[in-house]
Design a protein that fits this description.
154 residues; mainly beta; Immunoglobulin-like; three-stranded mixed β-sheet; 1 helix
Amino acid sequence: MRKLVSAAAVCALAVGLVVVPSAFGVKSAKQVGGAVSVSGTPTTITSTTTSVTATGSVATSSGCRQGRTVHFSYVNGATVTPLTETAMTKGNGAFTATLPKPTDTAPASVTIRATVDSLVRKVGSKKKGKKTKRGRVFNCLALTGDSSALTISS
């Protein structure tokens, strides 16, 4: 009987040691993906056009929509022309930017590529008197999306 009790105690200790590290272990950051949509106005660029307005939105979880930087570039086939203009997303993920006229000559078509930077967010669990957030960590992944083709005419 004594051997049975000691064997049960050893087994309980072994099971306890296996369970404890996973209970107190650090949780990894949640990877959050999404999509970005962008459209350009006007859709036909003429010689009198001075700028193009890019509007769009980031579709992802609510913790990863606000305050993300959006970079723009024009894409013509395999040629990518990065632009210096950027935009910040609002609380609902929407953004707007005024872009310069594409430098490509007619007849051609270009698309606007919007690239949203990655971001790490810590949310929740902010208690009074504590300066750091110890809640969940979200790793908001970088996103890229293209508009429909913009036609360049003379």
